[in-house]
Amino acid sequence: MKYVNANKVLPEKLILEIQKYIQGETLYIPKQETEYRKWGASSGGRRILESRNTAIRNSFISGSKIQQLAEEYYLSPETIKKIVYSHKK
Length: 89
Known about the structure:
It is a single chain. It is built from 5 helices and no strands. It is mainly alpha-helical. α3 (45-61) crosses α5.
């Protein structure tokens, strides 16, 4: 998180109004909900995991065993079960 001095970005009138409620403290101003992005959306990590999970589900449907998939993908059998038994397709 990056801190910015309010004097550099806000009009003096607004700063005076905010000072009625809080002074000399750190104030977090969240993004608008329309600006939120899901985890991995920017880096591509989400797409990579979805692709991996689809491959795991397809292998399971084709007959691969849970333990075999766990060893192949370096995941715990419990994680493989969560992936193959989830309802995402």
